[in-house]
Amino acid sequence: MTDIESTIREAFEHTEYDLGDVAVNRRQVRVPVIQEGADPDALRAVIEEALGADALAAVTVTTERIAGEDTVGTVVSFRYRG
């Protein structure tokens, strides 16, 4: 598990959101949130607090199937500047 992945998982531990498999590919990070209709601003705030607002670039929030299952969730993707 990368430092970014573990930091994000720790940040979400005490929230109402459950995460799927966080993926880090070079500096591109994908954070799937299992709950459908999760508040994009709240998700971004949790990640910014954990990593620092200056560490995030090109943030997108989408709704999509999580891990190829029937579960539809919210996915936060961003480039990490760390």
Short summary of the structure?
The protein has 82 residues and is α+β, with helices and mostly antiparallel strands. The chain is 27% helix and 34% strand. The model has no long low-confidence stretch (mean pLDDT 90).
Largest sheet properties: 4 strands, antiparallel
Quick one: how many beta strands? Answer: 4
Strand order of the largest sheet: 1-2-4-3
The sequence of SSEs as H and E is: HEEHEE
Mean pLDDT: 90
Shape: globular
Percent of residues in helices comes to 25-40%
The number of helices is: 2
Strand content: 25-35%
Class based on secondary structure composition and strand pairing:
alpha+beta
Can you give a write-up of this model?
- α1 crosses α2 (40-51).
- The chain has a domain at 1-23 and 32-60.
- It has a four-stranded antiparallel beta sheet with strand order 1-2-4-3, covered by helices on one side.
- It is of the alpha+beta class and 82 residues long.
- It has helices at 3-12, 40-51, and strands at residues 23-25, 28-33, 56-65, 72-80.
- It is 27% helix and 34% strand.
Give the helix/strand layout:
Layout: H1 3-12, E1 23-25, E2 28-33, H2 40-51, E3 56-65, E4 72-80
Antiparallel strand pairs: 1-2, 2-4, 3-4
Helix pairs in contact: 1-2
Features:
alpha+beta, 2 helices, 34% strand, globular, four-stranded antiparallel β-sheet, 82 residues
